[in-house]
Amino acid sequence: SPVQRRIVLLGLPGVGKSASGNTILGSEKFDCNFNSVSTECVSESESVDGRLLQVVDTPGFTDEVLNPEQLYEEIMKTLVEASPGPHVFVILVRIGNISAADQRLFELLPKLFGGDASKYTMVLFTHGDELRGSSMDQLIQSNSYVSDLVSMCDGRYCVFDNTQRGRRLQVRELLNKIDEMVAANGGEHCTSDMFRMAETFIREEKNQDHLNTKKLRNKFSRFTLSLTYQSLP
């Protein structure tokens, strides 16, 4: 059976999560309508280079798009979509538009998904064409936000330039780095009490109600919201 990889895309609005999800899967699965800002988690799957990939596209992490309670509900839906746990959280950052908000997103990960979530995290820089002849190493050295974010992820990063022809090579490099990270983590995916709770909840509810995924994740997010929303910063 093919190797499974569950990939959760995280980032601020406008960084290109949906477009990058389509690039990774090699097909137009996610809606990239620039007039609409995603406010829901969407999960799509595809076989790519001998791996069965499940990519979860999440809403942009900002109070301007969702209020904190709605944002938390969508994060809980991510737990259901990525159950029993993601192999990697990919933080997408747009080159040319990098700020302290990208760092804050990384710092939120352990609070949202469990203390060891950072071990399962890497950075994907989008709009690589905006490097305009500079190298990524130069950008990392010259921008403290970039260097701090990359070091927080133990140096794990990739660059996507969606204007180039070599998209599949970029995807192959990303998947190889994810494989290396999974191997370094002993072949394990990210687990936390929240993911374990999601898995138990899914199993029990499916046995009882035969709920479809959308109803199930909505029910789970309401359930966890009542338990843990107060503990968020």
Automatic annotation (TrEMBL):
<protein>
    <recommendedName>
        <fullName>AIG1-type G domain-containing protein</fullName>
    </recommendedName>
</protein>
<dbReference type="GO" id="GO:0005525">
    <property type="term" value="F:GTP binding"/>
</dbReference>
<dbReference type="InterPro" id="IPR006703">
    <property type="entry name" value="G_AIG1"/>
</dbReference>
<keyword id="KW-0342">GTP-binding</keyword>
<dbReference type="InterPro" id="IPR045058">
    <property type="entry name" value="GIMA/IAN/Toc"/>
</dbReference>
<dbReference type="InterPro" id="IPR027417">
    <property type="entry name" value="P-loop_NTPase"/>
</dbReference>
<keyword id="KW-0547">Nucleotide-binding</keyword>
<comment type="similarity">
    <text>Belongs to the TRAFAC class TrmE-Era-EngA-EngB-Septin-like GTPase superfamily. AIG1/Toc34/Toc159-like paraseptin GTPase family. IAN subfamily.</text>
</comment>
<dbReference type="Pfam" id="PF04548">
    <property type="entry name" value="AIG1"/>
</dbReference>
<feature type="domain" description="AIG1-type G">
    <location>
        <begin position="2"/>
        <end position="199"/>
    </location>
</feature>
